Amino acid sequence: MSGHSTPRSTPRSTPPRSISPLSSRTFTPYSLNSAIRTRRLTSSPRFYAVPHNKICDLGDTVRFQCSVTGQPAPWTSWSKDGKPATPNARVTIREKEDLRFLEISEVTLEDAGLYTIKVENNYGSVEATARLEIMGHHGVHTGTTVRSYSANRSSPSFGRRLVGSTARVGGQFTLSADIQASPSPATSWYKDGELLVKSDKVTPTWDGKVARLELDNLEISDSGIYTCIAENEIGKTRCSAELSVLNTPDISDAELQPPVFETGLPNRITIREGITYEMTVKIAGSQPLDVIWTKDSAELVNCSDFKYVDYGDGRYGLRFLDTFLEDSGIYTCEAFNEHGDATTTTTLVVGGEAMEDDTPLFSCSYGA
């Protein structure tokens, strides 16, 4: 962590920049170990990383991106609110190796809505969704209604969604997804369409913020599509991911390490307004490793205001160019690779006497 004074800039009169969606960070595509590829000459499509929900200002540029795999190589299609999304002067759809992108420039209120990517080949198909909300003068436009920040009721939506992964026979694996809703939703888990109930092998939990499914003593038969459904009286949503359980004794443990925070974020940070500040963490785990930062469950943009920093030695940072009172909130660093994910969270308070509570707060989920 570091901080030093800079000249105070004029406070923002627009909504906080911290939830602008365009990210220019380098996203490294995931790929299976070559030993695994030889075992799966053909396979249905699956996601290694899914698109995130976005909130942005009018006129911004927003990008949805994800990482997919399948054999033979799958084709993709995008839709918005159930209607095909096609390229035009403001909408760009492109592919680069395993990555899929949909980018919208000069965002308008009409661009708000639910975006879906469908990935398919001759052996199956899979879908993922992400919502785009637009900050207008009267609140947040979701595509169907304008929702004020003071609204107390909302249908469930996923922040951090399920991520497809691989695990080993005999190991343990945890699927987890962040869910926002009011009133609190009921959650349920399914495998290949069949409801899962608590047992010695399967443990579903819901703590009011994160839905988790813990799987113990994994077997090959535990491979499949896992779905989390969240529902309250306002609405219902779901997300899915594929888990592949492999018997791979020939692959060394060094190649199957999930992310682990060697140094996490402190429980609480209090800093002055109008300074440059950087949050830092240190992460160990198998590459490729992807790291994102969120504020109040919305993914942060890598830009001049919020700079993603990769020191190349396992240390990652989020640098604030100039802190504002509106930057106060709950910040999370999330790291994930093929073998699991981990998070560390802090509460940032801008405007008080500088101090840190150095008790780390982090969690992880992975296959042993």
Automatic annotation (TrEMBL):
<dbReference type="GO" id="GO:0098632">
    <property type="term" value="F:cell-cell adhesion mediator activity"/>
</dbReference>
<feature type="domain" description="Ig-like">
    <location>
        <begin position="45"/>
        <end position="133"/>
    </location>
</feature>
<dbReference type="GO" id="GO:0007411">
    <property type="term" value="P:axon guidance"/>
</dbReference>
<dbReference type="InterPro" id="IPR036179">
    <property type="entry name" value="Ig-like_dom_sf"/>
</dbReference>
<dbReference type="GO" id="GO:0070593">
    <property type="term" value="P:dendrite self-avoidance"/>
</dbReference>
<dbReference type="InterPro" id="IPR003598">
    <property type="entry name" value="Ig_sub2"/>
</dbReference>
<feature type="domain" description="Ig-like">
    <location>
        <begin position="258"/>
        <end position="349"/>
    </location>
</feature>
<dbReference type="GO" id="GO:0030424">
    <property type="term" value="C:axon"/>
</dbReference>
<feature type="domain" description="Ig-like">
    <location>
        <begin position="156"/>
        <end position="244"/>
    </location>
</feature>
<dbReference type="Pfam" id="PF07679">
    <property type="entry name" value="I-set"/>
</dbReference>
<dbReference type="GO" id="GO:0005886">
    <property type="term" value="C:plasma membrane"/>
</dbReference>
<protein>
    <submittedName>
        <fullName>Myosin light chain kinase, smooth muscle-like</fullName>
    </submittedName>
</protein>
<feature type="region of interest" description="Disordered">
    <location>
        <begin position="1"/>
        <end position="26"/>
    </location>
</feature>
<dbReference type="InterPro" id="IPR007110">
    <property type="entry name" value="Ig-like_dom"/>
</dbReference>
<keyword id="KW-0393">Immunoglobulin domain</keyword>
<dbReference type="InterPro" id="IPR003599">
    <property type="entry name" value="Ig_sub"/>
</dbReference>
<dbReference type="GO" id="GO:0007156">
    <property type="term" value="P:homophilic cell adhesion via plasma membrane adhesion molecules"/>
</dbReference>
<dbReference type="InterPro" id="IPR013098">
    <property type="entry name" value="Ig_I-set"/>
</dbReference>
<dbReference type="InterPro" id="IPR013783">
    <property type="entry name" value="Ig-like_fold"/>
</dbReference>
